Every structure is written in C-alpha cells, then in structure tokens.
Amino acid sequence: MAELTEAEKILLRQTVERKSNEAGIPQRWVKACLHDVGQAIENILSSTNLQTAISNAVDTAAAPYGVTFSGTEKRWLAAIVMEIKHTRDLLG
After folding, report:
1. Domain housing 20
2. Taking the complete model, does pTM exceed 0.85, yes or no?
C-alpha cells in the first residue's frame, strides 16, 4: 500500500478547496479528514483485488483481438484511463 506524501496531501486539499469554491459548496471538512479519505481511496486503487480485477478486465477485452498486454502495459492503460476520467470529472 502506497502512502500519500505530504505534497500529495497538499495537492488533494488545494484541489478539493478549489473545486468546492468553484461549485459554491461550503467546505465542511478538516485537513485530517481529507488526508484519511485520500488515503482510503489510494488504498483501494493500490489493492491487489482491484489490480487483479483490472488485469482480468484487460485480458477479457483484448482476447478477441489476440492481444496480450504485459503487467506494465496494463498499469499504463489503467493510469491513462484514470487520467481521462480525471479530466472529465475534475476539469470538465
């Protein structure tokens, strides 16, 4: 399990604050709450169960094409899709 760094916690707080201000949502949390929530999400994203589920989903989707992705390529694909989702959900 990866631990969020202090820089990542700061980025999380700043981004949540900016997005809530843009949306007119009152901030009703404290730093420690955001840190713990961020770490909980990181734990899920780093969990073996999720990684296995993503690996299996990639294998299933690629099988009809006769393509097999390596573990590294699967991590790239997952990161790219999460970045696309980030852009859509956070910046869009």
Report:
1. 1-46
2. no
36 & 55 share domain: no
Map tokens 């294998």 to a residue: 59
Residue 62: φ, ψ to 5°: -90, -20
Angle made by CA atoms 76, 78, 84, in degrees to the nearest 5: 100
Q: Measured between alpha carbons, how far is 6 from 19 in angstroms, rounded to an integer? A: 20
Specify whether 30 is located in the same domain as 56: no
pLDDT by position in tens, the chain (length 92): 689 999 999 999 999 999 999 999 999 999 999 999 999 999 999 899 999 999 999 999 999 999 999 999 999 999 999 999 999 988 87
